[in-house]
Amino acid sequence: MATLELGDARLPPAWIEMGSMKYPLGTDDQGRDILSALIYGARISLIVGFASVLLSVVVGVAFGLLAGFRGGWIDAVLMRLCDVMLSFPAILVALLIAGVGRALFPNAHESLAFGVLILSISLTGWVQYARTVRGSTLVERNKEYVQAARVTGVSSLRIMRKHVLPNVMGPVMVLATIQVATAIITEATLSFLGVGAPPTSPSLGTLIRIGNDYLFSGEWWITVFPGAMLVLIALSVNLLGDWLRDALNPRLR
What we know:
Elements: H1 34-70, H2 72-86, H3 90-104, H4 110-140, H5 144-151, H6 156-192, H7 204-212, H8 221-247
Keywords: Cell membrane, Membrane, Transmembrane, Transmembrane helix, Transport
Transmembrane segments: 44-69, 81-105, 111-129, 164-185, 220-244
InterPro entries: BP-dependent_transpt_permease, MetI-like, MetI-like_sf
């Protein structure tokens, strides 16, 4: 995204005096078009949100399926691990991982920085999926189709993958859709605190942090528009999750 002329820095929206139709939502402190920055920042937030949720789903479903189907000491160890993870605030764990990653790789490429950010969000997100899948698996493993598969000599891994997993993914899909909004907000929070997306990438959290310095000097648009975009994305994803929950609920059909 190209930087505009210095004279274009902090121009107001087009409908305000001194505004320009060339920049409908105004420009930020570096003269960047706010509208272009919002589009680019929304893309970053969505990519980080979906990637972190996908990683959380993979880890959480695998652990939950294994704990619920195997039981015994495996179940006890994995559930105690979940309890330990739940005892720490998610944002603090994400801050710790993101901070350590930046300290270890201060000159890392942007792709590695985004990888650390995704990992820091996923590290606490998998617990909910593990608990959800474990509870559903405890119910499914005692049903007749699972017992019949065991009698016919089907391996436990195949039973979990082919029979149990498809029947426990309904709640996971709903939870994952809703958790995308949480992951996006977490990414924005980390970026606002300066340990999220790289400073050269205008994510929504970075834009809000930059605009916060000018909020009380009259340049409100630098903060308000990125904040409104963040709220709009989170609301849209939550509405999608509510719709998916109703669509997958057989009682509402």
